[in-house]
Design goal:
With 121 residues, the chain is of the alpha+beta class. The chain has 4 helices and 5 strands. The chain has a 5-stranded mixed sheet with strand order 1-5-4-2-3. Helix 2 links the parallel strand 2 and strand 3. It comes from Streptomyces niphimycinicus. InterPro entries: Thioredoxin_domain.
Length: 121
């Protein structure tokens, strides 16, 4: 299964969360944020993934209690399949309990990320 960018830069798909599914530090390999977590699935040669990393890191640094975790999708195929990740970059916004409250594929804009965090905190 090869994962790659989901189309032209700027083309995004956003949807609400995945119900009661919760993700934890053990499953993700990093601690969740106190208030919310921006979980990014990336692949090695994905240019939009690099820009997404910068955007999410900047937002996490601006908002107290928000963590940014990046996962190499190709190295974590079991998790990718379990979560239905179809392309990179895909970003999941988790609340403090690790519930998925928002999901988006494609390169996000900073304003969209900040707005999505409103659903989590």
């Amino acid at each position: 299964m090869a994962l790659h960018g989901g189309g032209p830069i700027g083309r995004r798909q956003v949807r609400d969360g995945d119900g009661d599914r919760r993700l934890g530090a053990a499953e993700l390999g990093a601690e969740l944020g106190e208030r919310a977590t921006l979980l990014q699935f990336s692949s090695a040669f994905c240019q939009p993934c690099r820009a997404t990393r910068r955007t999410l890191s900047e937002v996490a640094a601006m908002v107290d209690g928000v963590a940014h975790i990046e996962i190499d999708a190709e190295a974590r195929l079991e998790l990718v399949r379990a979560l239905g990740i179809a392309c990179t970059p895909t970003v999941l916004v988790l609340d403090a309990a690790g519930r998925i409250v928002r999901r988006a594929s494609g390169q996000p804009r900073r304003a969209d990320v900040i707005a999505a965090l409103g659903d989590a905190v």
